[in-house]
Amino acid sequence: MKVLVSAASRHGATRDIAKAIGDALIAQGIETDVRRPEEVATLAEYDGVILGSGVYAGRWLGPARRLVERETDVLVGKPVWLFSSGPLGDPLKPERDAEDVEILLKRTHAIGHRTFGGRIDKRELGIAEKTIFAVVRAPEGDFRPWPAIGEWAVEIAATLRARARAAGGVPA
Predict the structure, then answer these.
(1) Fewest C-beta atoms under 10 Å: which of 34, 51, 117, 172?
(2) pTM of the shown model
(3) What is the mean pLDDT of residues 51-70?
(4) What residues does 85 pair with on adjacent strands?
(5) Which pairs from 13-18 meet CB under 8 Å and 24+ separation?
(6) Is the pLDDT at 157 greater than 80, yes or no?
(7) How far apart are CA 74 and CA 118, in angstroms?
């Protein structure tokens, strides 16, 4: 069984989440590739896909959306999970999903979607981003819930193993 974990990330925080998911899957005995969406030529070699994106202005980043557009026919035939990263603060704001998540869920036939808190370091932002974050009064800090991310990856691993057993591909 081979799984792809891919995430579009502007400043690396979402890519870090993808790496943590990949590490957790590997620890569960699942062969895993962690790649940026723009590095993925095809999904044909994978038995499952976990795709994520940072959320900016309420939307997923272009590279993740384009991967879904390019590979929709392949995605619908595989177990797929989606994740978003971006809400900040305690409690996390905004509370609602990115506006394109519902469309992506339908298009990929994804098993599920999770939203995880993000990270913001104002030193990494460009002038326009600094202005936006000042206007919306976004808090600076790291709000990624590492234990919850790891637990989600373990749940995915269990689901993948159960599906493989049901298909006769993996022993218990």
Answers:
(1) 172
(2) 0.91
(3) 94
(4) 54, 116
(5) 13/54, 13/85, 13/118, 13/119, 13/120, 13/142, 13/144, 14/52, 14/53, 14/54, 14/85, 14/86, 14/118, 16/119, 16/144, 17/52, 17/83, 17/85, 17/116, 17/144, 17/149, 18/50, 18/52
(6) yes
(7) 29
